Amino acid sequence: MWNLDDENIYTKFYSFTINEAFTYGNMTEGQRDKDKRERIREAANNNFPNDRPENKKWAFRITFGKSGGRQFDVENVPKLIIDAFCIKQISNDNSVFTSLGLYKDDTIDEVIMVQVAGKRNNESYMEIEIFHKK
């Protein structure tokens, strides 16, 4: 049930990489949560599928590398990514990427799993894979 690579249970919907790694909660101009969600959406927008399965349960696998030595909390990575594809949050952000909404709200009723793994790296990145349950 927890193996996103099990094609009997999950289908990979889309994947993309963003060339930075960040967490939520920064209030610096240009680094606010809304700014980061919009950068995630911009990175995802290239070739994002138009056809979406209806009423599906969604899952995310997030793998990241973080450069430098500053504190970086793994558990704070997925929030912005999950919120970036939430229809309610897209609307609240007044995002230009309205077509990226996958689910009404980011609750357990629609987003059922998040896997996150990271490491220190020479360059920062986040690889984001989006799956839906069959």
Structure description:
- With 134 residues, this protein is an alpha+beta fold.
- Helices cover 19% and strands 28% of the residues.
- It has a four-stranded mixed beta sheet, with helices on one face.
- The longest helix is centred in the N-terminal third of the chain and has 12 residues.
- The protein is globular, with a radius of gyration of 14 Å.
- The protein starts with 9 loop residues before the first strand and ends with a strand.
- The model has no long low-confidence stretch (mean pLDDT 93).
Secondary structure layout:
Blueprint (H helix, E strand, L loop, with lengths): L9 E9 L14 H12 L13 E9 L11 H7 L2 H6 L18 E10 L4 E9 L1
Helix pairs in contact: 1-2
Shape: globular
SSE order, one letter for each helix or strand = EHEHHEE
| End-to-end CA span | 11 Å
The biggest sheet, with number of strands, parallel, antiparallel or mixed sense and barrel status, is: 4 strands, mixed
Helix and strand content put the structural class at alpha+beta
**Number of helical elements:** 3
Total strands: the figure is 4
Strand order within the widest beta sheet: 1-4-2-3
Q: What is the mean predicted local confidence, pLDDT?
A: 93
What level of helicity do the residues show? 10-25%
Question: Which spans of ≥5 residues are poorly predicted at pLDDT below 50?
Answer: none
Using only C-alpha atoms, the radius of gyration works out to 14 Å
* Amount of beta strand: 25-35%
